[in-house]
Amino acid sequence: MLTRSNYFDPENEWEYFGSTQFKSFLKCEAAEMARLNGEYTPGTTTALLVGSYVDAYFEGRLSEFIAEHPEILNSRSGALKAEYKHANAIIERCGRDRTFSRFMSGEKQVIIAAELFGHPFKIRIDSYHPGKMIVDLKVMKDFEPVYVPGKGKLNFIEAFGYDLQGAIYQAVEQQARIDAGETDAEKLPFYLACATKQETPDIAIFEIPQYKLDAALKIVEHYIDEFAAVKDGEIYPKRCEHCEYCRATKRLKGPVILEDMQNE
Ligand SMILES: [Zn+2]
After folding, report:
1. 120: part of which helix (H) or strand (E)?
2. pLDDT confidence bin for 164, thresholds 50/70/90
3. In a domain, 218, yes or no
4. What residues have their beta carbon closer than 5 A to ion ligand 1?
5. CA geometry: angle at 75 spanning 73 and 81, to 5°?
6. From the CA of 27, how far away is ligand 1's center (Å)?
7. What is d(CA 162, CA 134) in angstroms, rounded to the nearest whole number?
8. Could you tell me the pTM of the whole model?
9. What is the predicted pLDDT for the residue at 263?
10. How much is the average pLDDT of 230-258?
11. Which phi and psi angles does 34 have, rounded to 5°?
12. Distance from the CA of 202 to the center of ligand 1, in angstroms?
């Protein structure tokens, strides 16, 4: 049984795919396998922790979160570090907006599991409005386009793979209802409730159009058998040769010729 406390336990990470795991496999199979094997722990950045702080607030477990993460407090004064004081300002800004608050008023951190394309998946919804919508909360630098190597500048939603996350959340939620006997279950709209870390935080609710979510689900369908085979040890994981893990474990075979470098 998946619960909040065992959601990211290694045994459940091995058993289920999730949207973060799928996106990580898509980025670099070798790094994700090393993470699953416990050989490599991607660093938790302050940027990520600020997002988790805001998540914890909306979930109503901020005091537990602070107790679990003493590093967010100033060791001498015991007061919140500046980034988290600012996180409080972001939370205050979100709370001041009625629409934002309405989207964030669903059931919090709802865990659902179902099979997609023959493989078990798990999702955890930030704000679930059964029968109406799925909302995911994001705290980010800003809403500007993001440069993605090989793809150029993309809107932040596609740059960060939030379309893939939405597609997986929608499909798993729908499949779980079909499994429960609701044979005509339709997909629920997927929204991102976003706030920025800018000095004066910006807020927005973004809807990812269904055709984009459908296209993203095709990507899941295309890769999932390969990723499952990698997880099962049937296929050797591919290295991307660009990520932190690949850089740290790289073994030089000799000089790189300029023309090859340009093609990488
Ligand atoms: Zn890599």
Report:
1. strand 119-129
2. very high
3. yes
4. 28, 31, 240, 243, 246
5. 35
6. 7
7. 13
8. 0.92
9. 56
10. 93
11. -65, -40
12. 33
How many independent structural domains does the chain possess? 1
pLDDT tens column, 8-23: 899 999 999 999 999 9
Alpha carbon distance 21, 62 (integer Å): 26
Whether 147 maps to a domain, the answer reads yes
Q: Which of the 8 DSSP states describes residue 195?
A: E
Q: Which domain holds residue 117?
A: 10-43+97-263
Q: pLDDT tens digits, residue range 131-163?
A: 999 999 999 999 999 998 888 999 999 999 999
Q: Helix 29-36 crosses helix 19-27 at what angle (to 10 degrees)?
A: 130
Provide the percentage of residues in the chain whose pLDDT is more than 90: 86
CA distance linking residue 120 with residue 228, whole number of Å: 10
What is the amino acid identity at position 37? N
Give the tokens for residue 246: 């690949």
Q: Render 151-165 in DSSP notation, one character per residue.
A: TEEE-HHHHTTHHHH
| 24 falls within a domain | yes
Residue length of the chain: 264
Q: How far is the CA of 235 from the centre of ligand 1 (A)?
A: 16
